[in-house]
Amino acid sequence: MSDTARNRNTWTHGTSRRAVLGGAAAAAAGFALAGCGSDDDGGDEPKGRKKGEKITLTFWSWVPGIDKPVALWNSKNPEVRVKVEKVSAVDGAQYAKMHAAIKAGNPPDLGQIEYPVVPSFLIDNGLLDLTKYGVADHKDKFIGWQWQQSVFGKAVYAVPQASGPMGLFIRQDLFEKWGIEPPTTWDEYEAAATAIRKKGAWIETFSATNGNRFAGLAWQAGARWFGTEGDTWTVSIDDEPTRKVADYWYGLVRRKLIKTIPDRQNAWYKDVQTGDMASWLGASWGDALLVGNAPKTAGKWRVVPMPQWKKGDAAYANWGGSTTAVFAKTKYPKDALAFAIWLNTDPESIKLLIENGYGTPGAKQGYTTSQLDVHKDFFGGQEYSKVFDEASKGVDTSWKWGPATDTLYQRLGDAFTAAIGNGSDFRSVLKKVQSQTITDLKEKGLQVKAG
Amino acid sequence: MWAGLSNYAHALEDDRFTAGFGRVLLFGAVQIPVMIAFATALALLLDAASARWVGFFRTAFFLPYGVPGVIASILWGFLYVPGISPLVEMAHSVGWNVDFLGRGAVLWSIANIVTWQFTGYNMLVLIAQLKAVPGELYEAARIDGASAWQVARHIKLPLIRPALVLTTVFSLIGTLQLFAEPKVLKPLSNSIDSGYTPNLAAYNEAFTSNNQHIAAAEAVLLALVACVLSFGFLRLVGQRGKDGESG
């Protein structure tokens, strides 16, 4: 019975969408319009749960320990059971699976989706616009820029969970031994890199395939890779701030002041363990990563703010972080949203999430910064989360991700791989990726122009 | 929507994809002869009258084939990563500053994994064919005073020719389909891009960029090339075989 009902619902849902939006191209272009998303879902809204009806919502996530807050929810809400299905997060496999499920018409009710990837789900109409279900009432509970990451036009497509404000992890003991001050500007960073190199170690690596961090670096410098003008996407990867960043890192690579090995892989972990790499430009979730992979360096690390372009500035960026999104096909949008809000704002839930190291909460309240200092001893007693908390306040809120971030990372990775291989400068990378991205978006049926 | 051949045109215009083809062809031109020569040598050695411990060595040589490609790549990956690998350490201690995962070397590091994996398998196919050689031929050769080398050269090699052709064709197809090794080594190396081999390019189009149509076109092109090369090779050796018989 319920199966038939579901099928019928699915079918009408699909048809009305197509009728309204008239083909894939229009659908793809349409979401960038202000107020889009209010035009679909016409008269076929899911009926939702009847009073007293017991339902089960599926939730795809890969976050370790997410089952703990979910278990808490289930004990408090016997009628709306949430079932976590773990998905692989290797190489974006989880998103491939979600996109495939949307195409096949059987996505889960809820999903864990990282900020940069949210827009890609608007192209296949995979996510539910939550404004109709009163999501706006909860806006003030979340940190502004994180909320904005899921806002397109007037529509809100996801509930913020956590972010990764960036900071510089340094080996305090080595810096002290070598008489090097922790860098506060990028000029000082370069000087530190030179000094550390003279001691036979390295300050860092520039990983060709880490497009995510490179985006963070550009973000800090004031770049805005993507934007929308009406229903047209603007792409400006080859803009002045990004060029400045590219030139800077190219200089470090060319003068061999920095390694070029991939990060967060065996060789990198080894360098972190041995002190061959004396710092890491990471993000707030990096504490758990260092603790887990270099336990013997406990007590030797500190966190300092990300170096600035101009002394005294407080411009920061974000690397990582994700949302809880509700998929468009859910039969119980109200309950799904209620769970998403509870998961990310309830103090008890946040506490459980923090204990498992999920990053800096997207919620404004319900926790204290000291609660985030889970690994205080590892950082020699430093209240390191204050550094990230400050950084979070200095994140440029106008940054927007484009609709094909995974492809963008791949393009950047390929171009940086080639540039590092043949020694060409990083401006050539930006030029190439800019034109490739415009082509990529056009092929998705979107209206694009160079910004 | 009917796209005609535009997806194929798009795939062929992508220099990353075509470079991947060039790469696997170069790989095949070097790795297949080396591996087949190696497999033939091992098969002949194990088939020689003076061979000892044949069962043990046959199993030992064949064993790597039992290791799945992904696992083999992970194992070798550890042996390639500087700072962890004893091989790299040894090389450095004798002054050889090698980077197995670097731009120039990584293709041959992959070739090494593939050779390690498949030499034993090919050897086994060749041994099977050698076992089918009638004993009278050897007897006659011995009576004629042929040395072990002459027996190998003039009796065994010509008679296992069909098996050699078969293993070469299989290797050719396998080479074009290279996927697991570069996929597993990619995160470890700064020199493998997303289109390193045609299969990897198709995979990334489908599952990273969500472009199933381009991916499908790339897969079809790959199948076409594999088809042309395999049948081309068969034709080539078939022709030569006939020439040999008539001459």
Automatic annotation (TrEMBL), chain A:
Keywords, in A-Z order: Cell membrane, Lipoprotein, Membrane, Palmitate, Signal
Top-level taxon of the source organism: Bacteria
Ranges in a coiled coil: none
Signal peptide: 1-34
PANTHER family linked: ARABINOSE-BINDING PROTEIN-RELATED (PTHR43649), POLYGALACTURONAN_RHAMNOGALACTURONAN-BINDING PROTEIN YTCQ (PTHR43649:SF33)
Protein name stated in the entry: Sugar ABC transporter substrate-binding protein
TrEMBL record, chain B:
InterPro entries registered for this protein in UniProt: MetI-like, MetI-like_sf, UgpAE/MalFG_permease
GO biological process: transmembrane transport
Membrane-traversing stretches: 24-48, 60-80, 100-121, 163-180, 214-237
Every ABC transmembrane type-1 domain range: 21-233
Keywords, ordered alphabetically: Cell membrane, Membrane, Transmembrane, Transmembrane helix, Transport
Subcellular location: Cell membrane
Membrane topology recorded in Swiss-Prot or TrEMBL: Multi-pass membrane protein
Entries under CDD domains matching the protein: TM_PBP2
Cellular component annotations (GO), alphabetically ordered: plasma membrane
SUPFAM superfamilies per the UniProt record, alphabetical: MetI-like
Pfam families, A to Z: BPD_transp_1
Family of the protein in this entry: Belongs to the binding-protein-dependent transport system permease family.
PANTHER family the record matches: BLL4140 PROTEIN, DIACETYLCHITOBIOSE UPTAKE SYSTEM PERMEASE PROTEIN DASB
UniProt name for this protein: Sugar ABC transporter permease
Species, as recorded: Streptomyces violaceusniger
